[in-house]
Write a structure and sequence with these properties.
Residues 30-327 form the ATPase AAA-type core domain. This is ATPase AAA-type core domain-containing protein. The chain is 28% helix and 27% strand. It is built from 11 helices and 17 strands. The strands form 4 sheets. Strands 2-1-4-5-6-7 form a 6-stranded antiparallel beta sheet, covered by helices on one side.
Length: 377
Amino acid sequence: MKEPDLMLHRLTLNGFKTIRKLEELELGPVNVLIGPNGAGKSNFVSFFRMLNRMMLPPGNLQLYVGKAGGASTLLHSGPAVSPQIEASLTFRAIKGSNEYHFRLFHAAQDTLIFAEEKLRFAPNRLRRDAEATWIDLGAGQREPNLIDRAQEKNARKTMRTLWGFLLDCVVHQFHNTSETARIRQRWSVSDNQYLKEDGANLAPFLLRIREQHPAHYARITTTLRQIAPFFADFVLEPENDTLLLRWREFNNDVIFGPHQASDGTLRAMALVALLLQPTPELPSVIILDEPELGLHPRAISILAGLLLGVSSHSQVIVATQSPVLLDHFEPEQVIVAERDGAESVFRRLDAGKLATWLEEYTMSELWDKNVLGGRPR
């Protein structure tokens, strides 16, 4: 399988929510997290949401902490047990590895400040007895110094690469399809460059793709018809520089609006648009938390195919409870999350140890039999 040119290869994360100690978890092009409720899958995903918020200029770490309810809610078992969050991310590229390391320490007013922030590039040609030099980005700051340093005129390529990747690391979650959800409301036509994490600007996003990339738009609508055979096409007609998500059905002259769509249909529209957008515009990493919610098993199978297809260009991280979705992936693509007391434990499946089992059973059957783990205890 072809891999993305730049990919998060290894993650160390300590002191974040239920993740007390996660040492050098290796990540591949496709990473499917399974496990019982409360095992820590969503906490794993939310770390990437925090990373993305941190990197939005001029820095939104403090806003993220405040909205989360304060630093105490982010620190494993509170600041008395875990006074800091420590993370190391290693990104594998063609010519070497980019590394970003930081420590966030609990501070006054229940917030977080940087106790350490550094990065480095380790080229493949580096001698085995040599070690790449870290670039110190300082300590005591409330927002990442990487943001400003990466935007300097003579910024090192490593800084620009790391900041760009983390800025592009968006967690998409289309769970909120309630009557007041943003995806069901009008949205500015000009806000269309990328699909927002909740799909709020789906209509403007689709309009831009239809106008600029008609072949990709055709793929989106064709795929949606496999999920919802009644679907004919979107009706994307701006009014006063705003746009509402509307569509037509076959053999019907009625135009339907977002409040007439089922939750599953809206989620399918957003997922298909995200995964079938033009390749150069794909996020560096696609992160989805339980994307199967509200989808028919046939739609889940189509979703799995799209995720595998996109993984040659974007890294994929998916947390799921779906046996149907799991059956489309190989053991080495699966990470099992479990609870050990108050902390989350993550381990990647060993394909060799499961080879004999898989001669007679599917992945979902092995999950149900608790051969894989990741079942409630």
